[in-house]
Amino acid sequence: GAGVSQTPSNKVTEKGKYVELRCDPISGHTALYWYRQSLGQGPEFLIYFQGTGAADDSGLPNDRFFAVRPEGSVSTLKIQRTERGDSAVYLCASSSGQAVAHEQYFGPGTRLTVT
Amino acid sequence: AQSVTQLDSHVSVSEGTPVLLRCNYSSSYSPSLFWYVQHPNKGLQLLLKYTSAATLVKGINGFEAEFKKSETSFHLTKPSAHMSDAAEYFCVVSDLYALNFGKGTSLLVTP
Fold it and tell me: In this complex, do B98 and A43 lie within 8 Å of one another by their Cβ atoms?
């Protein structure tokens, strides 16, 4: 079956611009996660959705970052006034339930470059 | 807070020789631990996970890991490396639902 998909695969934007990154989880998966992977580092947790609500957004670095999941399926990560330090690969994952009993399946990521 | 430390940023082995990737964890309670692999231009894939059942965990592609509480370690091993094993490997500890990744170990396999 289809896995987690993310669009676009690559995004180049100028400093100060607004960007949206999209994640399509595996059908039926209620939990959705966003992570950010900077060059040479492991992924870092950003936000976790259970259904439509953000159950934990403690990993969002500042208020320029925001994510939504209005219908409990597709999610969009929004970044305002982008900075060069936002350049990274943004990963989305989904799982069929909360907690460690349910494997998180990762998408291929969106590579964001802020010039 | 739970965290992991991967002790080697790069490991190089010859094809057919054993693989050892080292990971130590820090946790205030019984942790859930994972190893993920990331091949170039591909998504992260779960190799194996430990969730307080058997201490020796077998995963995909011949990999296994042993949970040692006394040493706070969760090292990944494979008896015989294959060229296709060349990738980035991440040791991960779970914090209820969020995954906390180590910095990764890059495995190079030479012919």
Answer: no
